[in-house]
Amino acid sequence: MSLAELTRLAIAMGASDAAIIDSREISAEDGLAGICKEPGCENYGLSPSCPPHVSGPAAFRQLQKKLAYAMAVRLVVPSESLLSGERREIMRLLHEIVAGVEQAAITMGYTQSQAFAGGSCKKIFCPDHVDCRRLSEYGECRHPLHCRPSMSGFGINVPELQKTCGWSGNLGAQKKAADADSMSWVAGLVLIG
Ligand code: SF4
């Protein structure tokens, strides 16, 4: 399997777009990661996938030195769906795609590959549990095959990532033909190496 085949895998799993880029083109910014704490995110501290439990932008920049490639993934969806009960399923699919690509890359021999996604795994995978099992009981993650860290905690500049991939942030041209709903997107990332 080649890197191009990994992009085909992402598309086959449901991604709208997938692109291989040089990992050094990704911008991991301290200021963006700081937003999780101040002004703050409602999911701050709720799982090991979010600050203050993740290693943050500095560690991500170290990973960029070791892992040469990256795959960016995007799901384009009706904006309305992100404000509805569908949001959880969309975010879950995003995590499944990047985790699937990560595991395929590892099988190919890129053994240090690591996936990241948008959103908090506590909200996506464990909303019906009071606590994250890893944090509250030092136990196993309930969803180890699919749960991956949030890009926000590593300060990933996602709009810049989209530009690097040549993806338009203006999705007006991708409006659904059947109605006038606007479209939006969620993104994920796999460092490959
Ligand atoms: S147990 Fe749930 S909240 Fe904790 S890391 Fe796993 S998916 Fe995230």
Task: Supply database-style keywords.
193 residues; alpha+beta; 4-stranded antiparallel sheet; 9 helices; binds iron/sulfur cluster
Average pLDDT value? 94
Portion of residues within helices: 25-40%
The total count of helices amounts to: 9
Strand content: 15-25%
State the major sheet: 4 strands, antiparallel
Which small compounds were modeled alongside the protein? iron/sulfur cluster
For the record, the count of structural domains works out to 1
**Over all CA atoms, what is the radius of gyration?**
16 Å
From N to C, what is the helix and strand string? HEHHHEHHEHHHE
Sequence of strands across the biggest β-sheet: 1-2-4-3
How would you characterize this protein structure?
This protein is of the alpha+beta class and about 190 residues long. It has one domain. The chain has helices at about 5-15, 30-35, 35-40, 55-65, 80, 85-110, 120-125, 135, 160-165; strands at about 15-20, 70-80, 115, 185-190. Strands 1-2-4-3 form a four-stranded antiparallel sheet, sandwiched between helices. The longest helix is centred in the middle third of the chain and has 23 residues, at about 85-110.
